[in-house]
Amino acid sequence: MPELPEAEANRRRIEASCLNRTIKAVRLGNDTDHVDLPDAQARARLEGRQFTEARRHGKAIFAGSKSGPWIAVSLGMTGSLRPFDAADVRPDHARLVVEFEGDRRLAFRCPRKLGWVEVVDDPADYVAARNLGLDAMEIDVDAFANRVGGSRGAIKSALMDQKKLAGIGNLWSDETLFRTGIRPDRVASDLPRDRIDAVFEEMRRVLAAVAETDMDYSRLPDAWLIAHRDAGAQCRHCGKGRIEKAKVGGRSAYYCPAHQSGA
DNA sequence: AAGATTGTTTTCAT
DNA sequence: AATGAAAACAATCT
Asked: Looking at strand C, which nucleotides approach a protein CB closer than 7 A?
């Protein structure tokens, strides 16, 4: 599920349903082998505390309070955070469950086990330890041009490099470049500054618009790539090309050869 | 049934 | 030393 907009949607769920409730227990869920989760000692640190705020940096989600501790959550490809109540059926693939006073619960779901949860003293520690770049919605255009525009690799790979810029993944890098009219395999440092500026602006528009939909992609404009992200599909942006699929930086990149230029 | 999948880390090469 | 590319990871779906 997760790139920046999806992480933001999950963050908001915590904010809406799990703040300012004392934590009774933090328990392991089902089938937790091969999943990195806090050990008993780390889980115990959370008991008796409350989450008073939920933050996000790139794709990472944090819940905690000023004095800590915090949970740091990476959703992997298929993870999600789901608040529920004791009377509800526990969500599928719940690997960790935070139990609050009253009946509220928060499940960390992770069907394909590529995500993880850590307990940290401060979100900044997590960001530093993983060398994450500035958040994609917070970075300014000059820093963006420097970090992404300076890359000698493919522009798509540069956008997805969490050390340069945190928050963009495969789907929204494709969408950003589709809307800007630049081929994903174009070498970033070959692009003139005004094109890099255009990528920056379009990236912000894409991320903001997707965050607004709360993960319901059908609410995005039909002219966008997302609903037609299949090889051979007619391009709804220019009406001329058919969507092609290529490998860029080891990932599947979809683009329209008619209106996305470069190579 | 082989191959792809919204992510990250490690390893190898330049 | 830094930067970039490719493989590995786990599970599920087509």
From this structure: 3-12
